[in-house]
Amino acid sequence: MRIGVFVCHCGSNIGGTVDVPGVAEVARAYPDVVFASDTMYACSEPGQAAIVDAIREHALDGVVVASCTPRMHEPTFRRTVERAGLNRYMFEMANIREHVSWIGKDREANSNKAAELVRMAVEKLRLNAPLYPKSFDVTKRVLVIGGGVAGIQAALDCADGGVEVVLVERESTIGGKMAKLDKTFPTVDCSSCILGPKMVDVAQHPNIRLYAHAEVESISGYVGNFTVNIRRKATYVDWDLCTGCGLCMEKCPSRKSPDAFNEHVGVTTAINIPFPQAIPKKAIIDPTACRQFVKGKCGVCAKMCPTGAIRYDMEDEIVVEDVGAIVTATGYDLFDHTRYAEYGGGRYPDVITSLQYERLLSASGPTGGHVRRPSDGREPKTVVFIQCVGSRDRSVDRPYCSGFCCMYTAKQAVLTKDHIPDSRSYVFYMDIRAPGKMYEEFTRRAMEEYGVQYVRGRVSMIVPQGDTYLVRGVDTLMGEQVEVPADLVVLAVGAESSRGAPQLAEKLRISYDNYGFFMESHCKLRPVETNTAGVYLAGSCQGPKDIPSSVAQGSAAASKVLGLFARGKLESDPQISQVDVRRCIGCGKCITTCPYGAIEWMELRGETKARVIETVCQGCGICTVTCPQGAIQLQHFTDNQILAEVNALCLS
Amino acid sequence: MDVTNLETARDESFIHAVMEESGQDLSHCYQCGNCTAGCPCGFAYDIQVSQIMRNLQAGRKEKVLNSRSIWLCLSCSSCTTRCPNNIDVARVMDVLRHMARREGRGAERCVTTFWDAFLASVRKHGRVYELGVVANYVARTGRVLTDIDLLPRIAPKGKLSPLPHGIRGRDEIARIFQRFEEERTR
Amino acid sequence: MNLAYYPGCSGLGTSREYERSTRAVCAALGVALKEIPDWSCCGSTPAHALDHTLSGALSARNLVGAARAGCEAVATPCPSCLSNLKTARHRMADDGFRAAVGRLLDEPADALATLPDVHSMLEMLVTRVGLDAIRAKVRRPLAGLRVAPYYGCIMTRPTDVMRFDDPENPTSMDDLLTALGAEVVPYPYKVECCGASYGVARNDIVARLSGRLLGAARDAGAHAVVVACPLCQMNLDLRQPQVTWPGGHAMDMPVFYFTQLLGRALGVPESELGLEQLCVDPAIAFRRAEQALAAREAEKAAAVRSGKATTVRASAAAGQDGPDEAGRAEGGRA
């Protein structure tokens, strides 16, 4: 072979603690190395040009670059050698930055180690073979999981881009948390007024197929070719017949059913349409509250329904959809404030969450937009807002900031003044985080124009006193303990990952963090991609964020999908396992251990052997260590290649 | 109130000593004030507990060890229970008391005198002789009217023993105290 | 299981009736107590406020005594003793601390490596004997008695040391009192400090804090306050005339040790419960209970006479209306 070695200074990043020219000098003497040089920035344009020139000039057939981590520039350099006419897999990288220069300052030790790593790369390269990716078809349809504002945006952008969208939403209506809001900051726009048109667009778009009251059951396949099983949960109402007239709601005798849409500050009927602008505007029966289900006798809605849409015997149904990409936009849930026993632990009826308060403020809420205390229906005159309930709090394992609570609290305080002009609101805060456009100005308006009293300090406890609540806090700026007799207390609860997020992540085979938020590929540069090809993220499922950011991510994810599909065909990664049928004894151990189901049985001249399904294999290598015969090998990481590296290190 | 020079006012070794003895990392405190908000005795403090923590972060040894607050702390642990950063604030207050006593400081004389009287009783008898403690306290402070209104209320209940309850092993207790003092002076 | 008993110094004096009633109910419930031989003072707050090694040594002597007596656990009625003993045991895990304590004691240091665990008497009764067993033995239910359960600030805090019940809203005493037939009123200051040992040196602190506790109990409609701590009891009962509270007039709020009410409900002879040693007359509470019961009876009789079915509970009819629990507009439950 004719191998060329390029050792990079990376400015002083590597050159500062490694004798780069020295390493290149040593490398010149390695077997099969005919050319070695040091370079200032290998990845730069002149740096890459130098590699291309050297390949041509010295008729190199393999290249080693000793520089940063392959995660950084392996794709870059593979393209470089490809431009010079080599197969991209005739290239190896030695990481002498993250693994050498960044972890120690001993120049001699570092240079030795760098030289050894280069040697290992050379020995491996000597055993490399050209590999050729295969191309495969792509199903140009996208699955969007979650019909909140992020999912809605992603769906609309994909649909407008000509791609068919399958939108799956767990609740019986799309809209997510945004549909529950009364107004949005910083413009105090009516939430359903701005979201409503988008929701209708989703319903009417010819490219969007909406499955509401449905969940993803299972996913198989790989980028470009996913097969998704969707469970359409029984609504007990035939949605093809239901017109959303609402007569069933008027007549239903079971009037004290749990009202999840209104965050349980009100009650609803067992058969209900969650809110007037629901999409789809169809009724659904809660079987735990419906008398027909619980007691076996009622049937009023079935009698009353003008289209005969009621179906008590309806069952869940599984539908299968084929898609080429998936966008998860599953949103968030709110922190369970009952964990703060010092705030009543859920026992005080007038200590409510921000979202519950939002429903009280909303004209389509249980009180018709009149702010009333849940305990006695009186209008509160003193409202206390407490920020950071379940955020920035290590003691409840929520150290992070939820990012939108300062803003929504200011908004709610402003709205309180609008609804109840003779009221006074207090906000207990630690810091005010208002980073977005016009956000700081909005919080100042709350303080300056709406007379909201901001008190810098936490609240230690809430003590019921007669029919008010004594809120005991502190004003750290005055250095005094303070108390406020409140009629209503609103807790600015923090965001957490959506219920069931980790389980969905397992189905999608994407990573999630300790808190159940899905992990992006790179926290700075790749916020909407995951490390699983074909699966993208949008919105709060990736981390708490406000509406503009959610919408932006929805569009960003859509652009990734459209980009993926623009190519028509996709290339499969050839760094996958392959079976040497001469060595394979057909024991099937690899088939059972493969986590992706990427290996299957095949008949070959009357004998049973294993075969790798090339498009499914993810190149994890588990099969190679399982095989007792060493018959299945991971291309580009064969046993011999790895052993060559080990020998290079240990025997030289 | 003069301008504080943050560089010169900072006693770095004091900060380290507090952190080491209490096992708490003062940098975790983000001054939310929850401890102050819930402190039942805050009304009597000269420096609120969250401000004590702030002064500790700034290394203000004199200010903290000379405060009255540390002696009025009830050791009720409300602060520790509610701190969002899991700081054992009550333990920090205890450590400040230890340090103050080692240096002979104690801004609230009555409190330190009462505690000394209590421990003197334990040292002498092995168990607390309640009447003896009060008598000792009154003698040292001169506050002869202490709880005199309670005397007619408790006297008929037959609970207060006129004599101490000594234990067989009271010398063991005395030795504990003695060794403690020796270790201190060493 | 061999249970060691650590009475605590006040048990011999100002909280004598707590000590007596504790022994009486343990006997009645078959809980054998083995008093730690020649036990000594744990040092309470004055010791731990002076030095943790001194405090640890004073506590450790007693734990070693319990271990020597062959006991696997120690029970004590006083939360302050509990806190000191438990904290000492908790810190013994640290080699340095153990060695330092060892230097102060007569004992060899390795006796300190395994010390018995310590529990409150409340915990012992509620978890070892159990509410069902206690309920079965109730002979004289505390019918009509409305009580405010006051746990005091240290029994359940700090959580990593005390490891019992809830630090903000404990319910073990509530459950026990309910099992005895009493009515527990919602009490917002269950763990708020009464002023602890500051009655002598800073009487104003106790006056204010205990005053607030008593006022809240009265506002909650309690006939009596029930406590599990000698210092709380002394501050609320003995010092009741000293407290300041917005009510103005005389308080007259009896303050029982929970063991006294437990004993009474179990039918233990009153002579063993020390009720006469309480300062505020306990009979006031029992009279209030009787009056409350009589008033309730009178109401029922009047309702029956006037033919109104007011006592028929709404839930019987509402059973057809779906889950009542969720139906109520309780803002607190999300």
Automatic annotation (TrEMBL), chain B:
Q: Which PROSITE patterns match?
A: 4FE4S_FER_1
Alphabetically list the UniProt keywords.
4Fe-4S, Iron, Iron-sulfur, Metal-binding, Oxidoreductase
Output a single Gene Ontology CC term carried by this record: plasma membrane
Name any one GO molecular function.
Answer: 4 iron, 4 sulfur cluster binding
Fetch the InterPro entries from UniProt. 4Fe4S_Fe-S-bd (IPR017896), 4Fe4S_Fe_S_CS (IPR017900), HdrC_iron-sulfur_subunit (IPR051460), Helical_ferredxn (IPR009051)
> Pfam families given for it?
Fer4_8 (PF13183)
Q: For the 4Fe-4S ferredoxin-type domain, which residue ranges apply?
A: 26-87
Name of the molecule in the record = Heterodisulfide reductase, C subunit
Q: What is the lineage of its organism?
A: Bacteria, Pseudomonadati, Thermodesulfobacteriota, Desulfovibrionia, Desulfovibrionales
Gene that this polypeptide is encoded by: hdrC
